[in-house]
Amino acid sequence: MADSKQSERLNDTLFRMKLKLDSSYFKNFLIKHEFMFLNSLKIYSENCPEAEKNGIKATQISNYLGIPRPAVSKMLNGLEAKGMIERLHSLEDRRVVYIRISEKGRLFLEQAENYFKNVSSLIASELGNEKTEEFIKLLEVTINII
Questions:
Q1: What is the pLDDT of residue 23?
Q2: How many CB atoms lie within 10 A of CB 129?
Q3: How many structural domains does the chain have?
């Protein structure tokens, strides 16, 4: 079992890594939780053919993420103000509103994915094959512990 000094060092190291990743990518544009929310919309859309075609209703987002509808609305308002999503009214029923990721939002997510792939490649090349494999195994163990 790890002693308290090791636990403190681990906590500090993880926190510094998180801060470095956050500050190097998110800077001033999207808040991290907005990025996570937008990415969740992308994943939901990719796994739901109807959502890919028409968009997603706020109720579906609320159910999928397990968060209250008012919190979803607040997040959507912020993302819409930044041009990351668009709201589309149903042609059959104007009361029904669908949410879709805008072209700007798709581009942002694509750039984020490329950024994180580049970071992973940089880490792998610095560590080398053996240490990278060891690092991956440690991360997988960590995920299972959490």
A1: 67
A2: 9
A3: 1
Which tokens in the block code for residue 47? 């796994």
Q: Is residue 21 assigned to a domain?
A: no
Residue recorded with tokens 């990743």: 21
pLDDT profile of the chain (146 residues), mean per 10: 81 82 64 85 86 84 92 94 92 88 93 87 92 92 88
Residue 26: predicted pLDDT: 62
Virtual CA dihedral for 10, 12, 13, 18, nearest 10 degrees?
120
Whole-number pLDDT of residue 83: 95
Instruction: Report the length, in residues, of the chain.
Output: 146
3-state per-residue secondary structure call for 49-116: HHHHHHCEEHHHHHHHHCCCHHHHHHHHHHHHHCCCEEEEECCCCCCCEEEEECHHHHHHHHHHHHHH
Domain membership of residue 109 as a residue range: 26-145
- Return the pLDDT at 30: 66
Residue 32: CATH number of its domain: 1.10.10.10
Backbone angles phi and psi of 48, in degrees to 5: -135, 100
Q: Are 37 and 81 in contact (CB under 8 A)?
A: no
Per-residue pLDDT, 25: 64
User: Do residues 74 and 62 lie in contact, with contact meaning Cβ atoms separated by under 8 Å?
Assistant: no
